[in-house]
Amino acid sequence: MGSRMTRRSGLPGLVALAVVPVAVLAVFFVLPVAGMLARGLWPDGTFDPSGAVDVLTRERTGRVLWFTVATSAAGTAGSLLLGLPVAWTLHRLALPGRRVVRALLLVPFVLPTVVVGVAFRELLGESGPLGFLGLDGTPVAVVAALVFFNVAVVVRAVGAAWESLDPRPAEAAAALGATPWQVWWTVTLPALRPAIVSAGSVVFLFCATAFGVVLTLGGLRYATVETEIYLLTTNLLDLEGAAALSLLQLVVVAGLLALAQRLRATPAAARRVVARSRAVRPSDAPLLVVTAVVLLGVATPVATLVAGSLRTPDGWGLRNYAALASTGSGPGGSGALAVPVTEALVVSLRTAVDATWMAMLLGLLVAVVVTRRSRGRAERAVRAGLDGFFMLPLGVSAVTLGFGLLVTLDDGLLDLRASPLLVPVAQALVALPLVVRTLAPVLAGIDPRQRQAAASLGAGPWRTVAVVDLPVVWKPVLAAAGFAFAVSLGEFGATSFLFREEAPTVPVVIFRLIGRPGEGNYGMALAASVVLAGVTALVVLAVERLRVRSVGAF
């Protein structure tokens, strides 16, 4: 949006645009993460990696790494196997209501991870509809929840690529006598491979960092790197161990992000055209069956969660929802919570609003910087470096970020631990990459000749923005704001360290309630999960009506 106003200023203009976002990330991201790592690798002020090395060679660490890789790989494989047929069905077949179905499939992806964990506990528990399978508390439950959470990523990312593939090569192969399977293997799959690998790498990343899902379903018995960092910092105060795992996670995730970014930038994408959907044929029956199974698999945990929230010791009713105005039951007649769930919901909404405007202001600046046209080699190099720098929050555990903010911003001018803005800042940083990746493709796609034409007709810089850029970006801006709001509502990893006892968010409250004994507390957790899921779903469905294509990468 701002490239017309700054393109003539060259490298100094690029630097001027980047000053604010770089400063914000330096203070609220680089400093906390570096401080967290420093406390583990420089425990006495001198570099001493022996403690970190010792952690990496522990038997438990090996089990944690294996469980993280195994569940993430299984979750990725399951998401791809189920997501590819659904992507074809919902993006290439002319089905009635397919846009609504695509919107509904997106809801699980933005549900708070704690809510997903609670839903699967209710589904697979002893009294749940699938309790007879004996999967509660097993790795299978974790993988099933990861697939539920991430199948929408494959559907949207691969579906968007499939929808825009040029159909003529496949038609030519079929005309030359190739069977449908040969067309798929020799023509369609090679063209889709970048999108599939990119979606798979992103899904693997989301599986490996699904903090709330694993913490809720796996407990302490089955831990990933993400939950192990949480355990080491909160229960054991083992900063050296947490630093070692954080550094390892940073390196692996950064590599995955680099791979996904490289594949997203493949030249093949530029040669795609919009393909028309075709009518349903009898041969599409297996794909329709898989799509129906996936829809059933998405709906069942949510329906079980809603049903559980309405179940009370006296039968069916709204007792659990009425109890949200209380603090639950604790030992000795005390409450399980410091504040009622209804108050926590107000805190969550207020925090989400603050996190959204922060993420939008910062994300819009970043999107302008990374899409700005470079005139020279130096400017291109600086812009590429800034692009990677701004994506760093995706490569660091939210748990590491939260704990880093807690232990770093605690003295002098940066004593912000008691500030009510600390949680929104952390949540804004978590949402920042999503905002940038929603806005950047749209800004990059604006033809600069339109701006030049407006300027030649006498329009000033701001008038040019109003008549050229704004009509294109207003829907993506609203979509990015909606996704940032939804991410903030469900964020749990960083918030679990930074929240104040008198102002917890709903995900924190839910996790506390399921950890307290008592049927009433668990019922309240189910009801709170339904309320949070409902608010998140409404936001996402409203965003989906904007039909923004740039979010397909997620």
Write structural notes for this entry.
There is one protein chain. The chain is 71% helix and 1% strand. By secondary structure, the protein is mainly alpha-helical. It has a domain at 49-169 and 196-204 and 211-224 and 253-306: MetI-like fold (Orthogonal Bundle). It has a two-stranded antiparallel ribbon. The radius of gyration is 24 Å and the shape is globular. The protein starts with a helix and ends in a 10-residue tail after the last helix.
Summarize the structure.
This protein is globular. The protein is built from 23 helices and two strands. With 554 residues, it is an all-alpha fold.
The CATH topology of the domain at 49-169 and 196-204 and 211-224 and 253-306 corresponds to: MetI-like fold
Cα-atom radius of gyration: 24 Å
Strand order of the largest sheet: 1-2
The total of beta strands comes to 2
- Shape, principal axes of CA atoms: globular
Mind sketching the topology for me?
Layout: H1 3-6, H2 10-41, H3 50-56, H4 59-92, H5 98-110, H6 113-124, H7 139-163, H8 168-175, H9 180-208, H10 211-218, H11 225-234, H12 239-264, H13 285-310, E1 311-312, E2 315-316, H14 319-322, H15 341-371, H16 377-390, H17 398-408, H18 422-444, H19 448-456, H20 461-490, H21 495-498, H22 506-514, H23 519-544
Antiparallel strand pairs: 1-2
Helix pairs in contact: 2-12, 2-15, 2-16, 2-17, 3-12, 4-7, 4-9, 4-13, 5-7, 5-23, 6-7, 6-10, 6-13, 6-23, 7-9, 7-10, 8-9, 9-12, 11-12, 11-17, 13-23, 15-18, 15-20, 18-20, 19-20, 20-23, 22-23
